[in-house]
Amino acid sequence: MKPIRPLTVAAVAALVLVAGGVTSAIALDGRDDPAKPAYPADPGVVAPLSAHTQHHSDQVTIPAGGFGFAHVDCPAGTVPTGGGGQTTSTLTFITDSIPTSGGWSVGVKNTADVSNRASAWVICTTP
After folding, report:
1. What is the mean pLDDT of the chain?
2. Which of 12, 41, 82, 94 makes a 20 to 30 Å CA pair with 66?
3. What distance in Å separates the CA atoms of residue 18 and residue 11, rounded to the nearest whole number?
4. Residue 39 has what DSSP assignment?
5. pLDDT tens string 27-68
6. Statement: residue 125 has pLDDT above 70
7. CB neighbours of 44 closer than 8 A, spacing ≥ 6?
8. What is the torsional sign of CA 123, 36, 89, 91?
9. Residue 77: in which H helix or E strand, if any?
């Protein structure tokens, strides 16, 4: 019986790893994922036929190097179920995102040397 050479073992191991990697890559490429739903035509509606509506605050100015809050309320008779915020700069960060009794607030830190803007959004539903 001939001894197995280390180079042969390494080559076979490499082929097995590559074949496994190709299989994994095919499984993760998303080709078998279901189609994503289309965005609703009305931006105030989160999903078609949904009882949840989305509302946005006006933009607030956050001074250079400063901190501020943006807040948005749900309409009367509804409660917040989720929310968040947006900023106008990659140097302006959402530091807090918290529900309130009637809406949503976000804390915003501006690390830029110029003022930037931020806004909050909330998803509301009837309790």
Report:
1. 77
2. 82
3. 11
4. P
5. 444 455 555 555 445 555 444 455 788 999 999 999 999 999
6. yes
7. 53, 54, 55
8. positive
9. none
Beta strands in the chain (DSSP E): 53-56, 60-62, 67-73, 79-87, 92-99, 103-110, 116-125
Confidence (pTM): 0.59
Q: What local confidence, expressed as pLDDT, does residue 25 receive? A: 44
Give 52's contacts (C-beta < 8 A, 6+ positions apart): 45, 46, 81, 123, 124, 125
Query: Which position has the token pair 């915020």?
Result: 85
Q: What are the tokens at 24?
A: 């994994």
Q: What amino acid is encoded at 29 in this protein?
A: D
